Amino acid sequence: MSKHIVIGVTGGIAAYKVLDVASKLRKLGYSMNTIMTKNAIEFVQPLAFQTITNNYVVTDTFERPYTWDVEHIALAKKADVILIAPATANIIGKVANGIADDMLSTTVMAARGKVVFAPAMNSAMYENPIVQENIAYLKEKGYLFIEPDSGWLACGDKGSGKLPAPEKIVEYVVELLEKEEEAEVVEQDLAGKNILVTAGPTIEAIDPFRYITNHSSGKMGYAIAENAAKRGANVLLVSGQTVLDCPERVERINVRSAREMYDAVHEHFDWADAVIKTAAVSDYRPKEASDHKIKKSGENLILELVPNPDILKSLGERKTHQVLVGFAAETQNVIEYAEDKIRKKNLDFIVANNIAKEGAGFKSDTNIATIIDRDGTIIEHEQMQKSELGNVILDKLKMYFK
Ligand code: C5P
Questions:
Q1: Best substitution site from 239, 255, 277 to test ligand 1's pocket, by max atoms within 8 Å of Cβ?
Q2: For residue 86, which of 120, 207, 278, 292 is within the disulfide window of CB 3.0 to 4.6 Å?
Q3: Three-state SS for 290?
Q4: Is the domain 4-182 a CATH 3.40.50.1950 member?
């Protein structure tokens, strides 16, 4: 996907040089929008940027058909990089102090991508300790700066504060975008592998309105599915009811009950090279689900529960080449129970966690896991994001594919 740059132009004489920056970036194939402050349009006409970038220019004049409040968020989201050139002492001061009172400062405040300032101003202004302190503060917060050049300035003074040559600015931005792109490329080390992941809770009906379920959010399984797809695997996610969106390039089958999950998983078992069962399957279900809403009678109500099939165990009995990974969510004797499950369910390894611990378990975004192998190897992991743990589990799985 081509990268998008938002150029923020503020009111300095060097604004005209930024036309050349935009032109060079356009020739390299980047798409762009320009935001110009009120002062900037005193120096250069918005039409010049519009023509060069072949895209609309946003100003603070409210003349356009688009609405101001939506536009700054849209551009902030769209921008892989916001380049502010020339950046005056004013915009630097505003951002450093959290002021968002015009289109550019508001967009910067809402930005998710990198923001690069190319300061250009009179050298006395640039060297002013307040400006320098603002720059230092913004750098500390992760904002980037292209150092100004020294030389004769427009005001006739000589010193630091000159906007660097357009080539230099373009080179900086391109390098930054390329670095980001490299970081985004994920090694396709699971390419061609078919991985079936189950996630979320099951729901066991009592009557049309009531059911038995548990607190599983599905986050762990979704994180594994998402990472496996990013790493090139073909991923089938058999999911109980969750509020989570299906990750990109993952195929999802939605199920409700343990028996529905059983059917879906068995149907695709031959296809799978590995099954990772993060789902919190209900061990029991009501013997009979009433067709009608059960009325209250004032008497005790006895609900007879019958065991659900153990899906993982049944896969263990059926497995040929598949790597089987189980989860053990316990509140006590975690390791012992986990080791027992490996044997009983014929698993290759198990991810055990104590759901009673803070930072582990169902609803949390983090987990604290211990991975136990069939041969008894036990590796305890620190608390980490479920997404990161997803990759740790997939790294382990990869070893079984060899
Ligand atoms: O025996 P226990 O429920 O603690 O085992 C947990 C592991 O077994 C999980 O991987 C879970 O997805 C799976 N399981 C299953 N079918 C069940 C119960 C648990 O597949 N009925």
A1: 277
A2: 120
A3: coil
A4: yes
